[in-house]
Amino acid sequence: MTVEAHEVIARRSREIDAELARTLPTDGVPEQLRAPMEYAIFSGGKRLRPIMMLEMCAGLGGDERQALPFACALEMVHTYSLIHDDLPCMDNDDYRRGKPTVHRVFGEALAVLAGDALLTHAFWIVASARATERLRVEVAQELARASGPAGMVGGQVLDMQLSPDRDGDFVLTTHRMKTAAMFSAAVRIGALVAGANEAVLGLVSRFGDMFGLCYQIRDDLLDFTKARERFNYARAVGANEARSMLREFCDTAYGLLRVIPMNESFFLKLMEELFGGYD
Amino acid sequence: MTVEAHEVIARRSREIDAELARTLPTDGVPEQLRAPMEYAIFSGGKRLRPIMMLEMCAGLGGDERQALPFACALEMVHTYSLIHDDLPCMDNDDYRRGKPTVHRVFGEALAVLAGDALLTHAFWIVASARATERLRVEVAQELARASGPAGMVGGQVLDMQLSPDRDGDFVLTTHRMKTAAMFSAAVRIGALVAGANEAVLGLVSRFGDMFGLCYQIRDDLLDFTKARERFNYARAVGANEARSMLREFCDTAYGLLRVIPMNESFFLKLMEELFGGYD
């Protein structure tokens, strides 16, 4: 990553972490619940989705400070999904980012409840943000749609059905719902805060979708290289075809960035860093 | 229950069930996820909380049809909490209302995800209801506060800590957070839809809190009579003291109903049916 993009990410992460610390609930929350919520939120996430929200808002000329509570809400929803995905009845992961998963440290019951609490609190933050009521309602709709039964949760259900008899299209649908919907919501909410019109929102949505697919296929290719056993897009269509689709989605994303009326320099650098190796 | 109250409950249940069927998500939702959501929602719940919401709205002169989507959202949140409470890592219940629990029918992973989906979709319904943006924001705040880390989820964490060395006050705090907060939200949201002022909302909140405590202590007394092993309020303070507190909370609730400027006949009948035996 160029020094500039790195600097933006470092600065934005600090802003987001400070706001997360400020907006995690305290009053009336049992310490036994607050501890796993805090542990999960501060266990080394890259804050990619909230950073993209702030940068989309700023790139479109909006006041990204107004997006900060919404960025935290999105990160809380993302974090809850990781806690629940890691549970023994789901992926049964003992470690995430090198640290023991929430259920390994606090037990399964508190992991379920800490996830539930983060999800619920995210909507409290959205509903209580300093913003017009219209904006709060729109953001709540975005967040609920992207993370709900036709978005992230639905995608996780499809993910559980991935097996070698599934084709590439099924895997792409899974990635769209489980991963891309949240990236799309991130940049859409940034655009909503900036007051973008419907035409721009449409382009921003498609950019988020393409970015999310690239992000997940890249992950699948890395997994494939490491010869892990999990079925994914690279296994479904082969590494060459996956690389070719990644390039195609990247090209579409670059094309969208060119037509969105914004300062797109951060996103160009971010994509170069994440996906440049597949050019 | 007098025939009248019974009739109100039967009619309201049908209204709520019809609206639940209409508002459960379909578009883009994997069938494997929709099935456990539907199973949980339509497994014989009494719909007490949403009925109280509608009746509080109507009793205060509001249009209860406007409260119907919010009533469904509240019932979805209540239902998700039952699914997660029943999980093996929590209460490990095989049956609820005589039917196998969601995880017994669909497996643990889908039970976790169906709960997550119902919670998320509830906020989508609130944010998308036909109502002013202000009302949608207020209802989202109420629902998130009542069901979140300082409400229902926090109460479930305290519930996990109930043991014979806990005193009555600890059990009451647990009941307030886990149970009464949602009853309070139910009647508060009904009052918000009816356009109640802050003074009335304050009284309505306290009524919901008292009603919720009565409801839970009655449950504790029934459990105690059946000599179940679970630690509860009746075990903490003894059955006589629990009965006496139930009467006291009931009296306070009746007193609140008298001063709330509303047609309180439904609530009088409901309380007589539920708590009359403890007079």
Structural features:
74% helix; mainly alpha; homodimer; two-stranded antiparallel sheet; Farnesyl Diphosphate Synthase; 279 residues
Give the arrangement of secondary structure elements:
The structure is a homodimer of 279-residue chains.
Chain A: H1 3-23, H2 31-41, H3 48-59, H4 64-86, E1 95-96, E2 99-100, H5 102-106, H6 108-128, H7 133-147, H8 152-159, H9 168-193, H10 198-225, H11 233-237, H12 239-259, H13 265-275
Helix pairs in contact in A: 1-3, 1-4, 2-6, 3-4, 3-9, 4-6, 4-9, 6-7, 7-9, 8-9, 9-10, 10-12, 12-13
Description:
Two copies of one chain form a homodimer. Chain A has 279 residues and is an all-alpha fold. The first copy, chain A, has one domain: Farnesyl Diphosphate Synthase. The first copy, chain A, contains 13 helices and two strands, in the order H-H-H-H-E-E-H-H-H-H-H-H-H-H-H. Chain A has a two-stranded antiparallel ribbon. The model of chain A has no long low-confidence stretch (mean pLDDT 95). At the A-B interface, helix 2, helix 6, helix 7 and helix 8 of A face helix 2, helix 6, helix 7 and helix 8 of B.
